[in-house]
């Protein structure tokens, strides 16, 4: 006689309100800045050490520190290495991406909300918060580059 287990019940849906918002009065920092300032510096952890703990290459950690986006796999690895949740890193990245998109729409968008070239690139970048500007990947971030408060 064959023994079968009953099918697992579906997990309850995640309850998110449709107007989910994050406090706009807080400074918006990129995930790399949060990683550096809230986790690595206070604990004296280098990119090489975090790479060993997370299983990510050190060069990839350094790219995140200078502004490369964090994807799901990196979020899982950072969560495991830093005792956080992967969702924490994904929300930081999503919030950062939304702010950049809002800046682009606000400063480049037309009446229809589509993105159009309306000003020279230097003028567009100057009107966005400093950390939304494209930073060279070889230059380390400093406090001036990380201000995202509005």
TrEMBL record:
Location of region: Disordered: 112-150
Swiss-Prot/TrEMBL keywords: DNA-binding
InterPro entries according to UniProt: Cro/C1-type_HTH (IPR001387), Lambda_DNA-bd_dom_sf (IPR010982), Toxin_antidote_HigA (IPR013430)
GO molecular function (one): DNA binding
Keyword DNA-binding in record: yes
Keyword DNA-binding attached: yes
Biased composition (Basic and acidic residues): 134-150
PANTHER family in alphabetical order: ANTITOXIN HIGA-1
NCBIfam families given in the database record: antidote_HigA
Protein name listed in UniProt: HigA family addiction module antidote protein
Organism of this sequence: Dyella telluris
């Amino acid at each position: 006689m064959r023994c079968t287990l009953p099918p697992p019940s579906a997990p309850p849906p995640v309850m998110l309100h449709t107007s989910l918002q994050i406090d706009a009065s807080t400074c918006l920092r990129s995930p790399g800045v949060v990683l550096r300032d809230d986790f690595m510096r206070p604990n004296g952890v280098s990119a090489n050490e975090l790479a060993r703990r997370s299983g990510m290459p050190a060069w990839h950690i350094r790219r995140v520190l200078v502004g490369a986006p964090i994807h799901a796999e990196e979020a899982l690895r950072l969560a495991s290495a830093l005792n956080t949740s992967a969702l924490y890193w994904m929300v930081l990245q999503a919030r950062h991406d939304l702010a950049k998109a809002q800046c682009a729409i606000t400063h480049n968008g037309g009446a229809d909300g589509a993105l159009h070239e309306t000003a020279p690139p230097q003028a567009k970048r100057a009107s966005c918060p400093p950390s939304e500007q494209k930073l060279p990947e070889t230059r380390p971030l400093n406090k001036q580059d990380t201000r995202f408060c509005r």
